[in-house]
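Pasting two entries for a bug report.
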Amino acid sequence: ANRAFAAFFLNPYVIWISSAWGMFDVLPTYFALLGSLFFLDRRDVASGIAFGVAISLKYFPALVVFGLILGYRTTMNRQRLGRIGLGVAGVLGTLSAPFLVWDARAYLQGVLSPTSGSYVGRVTIWVVADMLGFLSLPIWIAALDIIAIFVLVALFSEAAGRRSSAGGESTIWL
């Protein structure tokens, strides 16, 4: 685990994206990985808190949570699901409360439609291509991408769940 941690966070690409481009994707990725480890160790509240922090930074960790729950559905019960949900909802509620009190309409518009704001701070190749008219992806392609990620996470989680129930190591390292 220590080598995987070092390989990811000391990767030159991760350092370049984080420092040169100012992208903070490493933070939600870190908390999603931490939440996954807590999930596999059955530390449900800690897993929910880690995933709550990750989801508050970016939306993609929600796919990981749903994939893990789907993959381990045979070992999940209502209490375990409730503890994970409590952690996620507690963090998201605590972080959202001040913004909901300040301007609920603007906050909900920003959360439910993140593309409604300006492009400041979101300079990627996709944004530039879209602004130049080179790229116009239909919404179904984005939905297909999300579904493909969800299915892959669920398949890996299912394989890890089978391996764990057979008495093997519960984590999968590629």
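Entry 2 (this is the one that rendered wrong in the viewer):
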Amino acid sequence: FMAATSPPRTTGNTAPQKANPSPTPASTKKKSTPKEGRVKTKIFVLDTCVLLFDHTALTNFEENKVALPITVLEELDRFKVGNETKHFEARACIRIIDRLSREHTLQDWIPVENGLGGELKIIMDGDCEAGATKQVFVESTNDHKILDAALCLQANEPEAKVILVSKDINLRLK
């Protein structure tokens, strides 16, 4: 499974890339078969900080699946009170999840209504034994629960590529 973040910022002092003077002709390029190197499904596990930055992140993953560990919902609940931007984002995200869940059970993959076929699911704590953070870390923190949820998804859906999306550097490093 992978950890992802937003694209790195570029500084003004980077040199422009030179064009390849002799491009490879199309006839010599390796042609890939449809099954080669392709992942059937991508599942993006979102950390709370992603949703506090942009509450619409739930719908920004096109036709892919988005998983939210229950810990993320608990953290959003704690952030909903206040007048700062992060509090607004938490409330707006909670409203989106509430609207999406009206006719569905959040423990199943449900449509996110982005027009591209994306789906959303809440991952409950203890859904599987594949989470290994208890064996590695002494404390049971929210970051470790989120990491466990990603590990569980990878174990339960081995054909999928599970990607943890976070703005938290320490979580990505773990």
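Dev reply: Rendering is fixed now. As a check, the viewer should reflect this: The chain has six helices and six strands.
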